[in-house]
Amino acid sequence: MAGARDTAIVTKHTESRAPAGVADGRWHALEIVFWLVPIAAYFVLPDYRILGSQILIAGLFVLSLDLILGYAGIVSLGHAAFFGVGAYTAGLLAVHGWGEPITGLAAAAIVAAAVGYLVSLLVIRGSDLTRLMVTLGVGLMFWELANRAASITGGVDGLAGVTMWNLLGLWRFDIAGRTAYVYCFVVLFLMFLLARRLVHSPLGLSLRGIREGGKRMPAIGAPVGLRLRTIFTIAAAFAGVAGALLAQTTQFVGIDTLGFPRSGEVLVMLVLGGAGRLYGGLIGAALYLIAHDYLAGLSPVYWQLGLGVLLVIVVLFARGGILGGAATFFARRTGR
Amino acid sequence: MSIVGVLFDGIAYGSLMFLIAIGLSITLGLMNFVNLAHGAFAMLGGYVSVILLQRAGIPFLAALPAAFFIAAVAGVVLERALYQRLYRASHLDQVLFSIGLVYISIAVATYFFGPSQQPVRLPAFLQGQVEIGGRGFGIYRLFLIATVAVLTIGLQLFIDRTRFGAAIRASVDNATAAAGLGINVNLVFALTFALGSGLAGLGGALGIDVLGLDPNFPLKYMVYFLLVVAVGGAGTIKGPLYAALILGVFDVAGKYYVPQVGGFVIYLLMVVLLLLFPAGLYGRRT
Fold it and tell me: What is the architecture of the domain spanning B3-276?
């Protein structure tokens, strides 16, 4: 009897493509459909291309947080620091005469990664709560830095006069946001491919091990500190690219790119969609910004109330967010 | 402003922060709960006292206990209805849940009171300055420091000398063992939460003159409260007290002597202290 049961379990495992939550690297049909949506939106909803660009940028930012929170389990309350560093890097380059978009993105990624590496040295020490506080403190420090260095950053008035050259020398950033939308979409998609590859790599699997049992990983010889520093640096670079996209497409850098509300917002988007799934963050970003656009249009008070109630409900009743909830739902239906 | 003046203002500011944050320290130490919405109870206390002062014409000193009481009741209701469901949840869930509560409180406060700052009229006997040794000290700040000093001593005695205080200490050290000894840990949690919320409410009411009061209060000062607790170490009274005083003095001194760096000093101080003392100055846990 026992033998038969074991075989049954083994066959079940080999048949199912991967355990829940661990994608196997092959493309699912749903994923292809998912990526067709923003392409379709470009043609079907031409009036919403500017909102669409915002969603794509936020999506990339959330993706970067997912790398450290969803995969490495580091809760950060100051992730906007890297977004802002990227935004100011690209913005300052353009203000001082280098308005080439692609190299601007690369520069933002490099600067944000360097800052991310330095911050990671502080963050990976200490427990959960210390990390929370250190990331919060670092985020606030960067805000204060930008605020005080007003001669360089424009302070609270923001950095204006960001003039971009044509994309690849061909496409002008137009007022209707066509170039911006396509640009953001392509960058997001390429970065997503990178992130997807990353989480299926040995590094990604090792990070998941650290998230599930940080004390056991050193026992099998995994260099926990190095892994965490690596992913934190990579995530910072991703966030920097997202910030640079915002600076380049809106041709403005506000100090709010560094603010705590933005760090909180990105956390909310990720958890709303479902952390540790890559797509969760993208869905969360889209829903969050669409709801924001609609509710804040009615009244800012409604927006804050709605957001608050939604958060409480997600935490109390729908842990794992939208994708997590959906996964549980389907697992229940197909499981029995 | 002299060094004495900076110290005096810093201590007044710090003792106010301590009064508000002590409840947070208890919830974090006792229930291991990261409650970012703690400032909402302080805001509630502030609005209660404003309503009583401006609309009902109740004297200032009578409005303070009311602020304490109503914030405490709100605390116990929320604790039983919502918070206690999340004691075992991850810190991330607690953070998100309490951020949610912060947003709700901001929306509710904006709806009822509007987005502007609330004015407060202090009674005549708390206005002005007194001369001590040739220096002028604000009477209200002296009153603040004295109130907090009395409350701190009372709180310390309460926790050290009473039976309920012993139950709190036992539950902080080991909730399971305390429950095994017949202590009703849930009741201890609820009452302690109420006490912490009440003190925050009192702090909010006392602090309108120093901190201001508008719907963004819980978000604006969230960092300061967390800072006091994280630096001081959760679950103690001494730790947050020293942390609040250090941070208060450094914040005031930083803003006065080097205004061009503003709040930078305090954030830097926090990160450095956290890295040197990961469990806080008086941390109970490592």
Answer: Orthogonal Bundle (1.10)
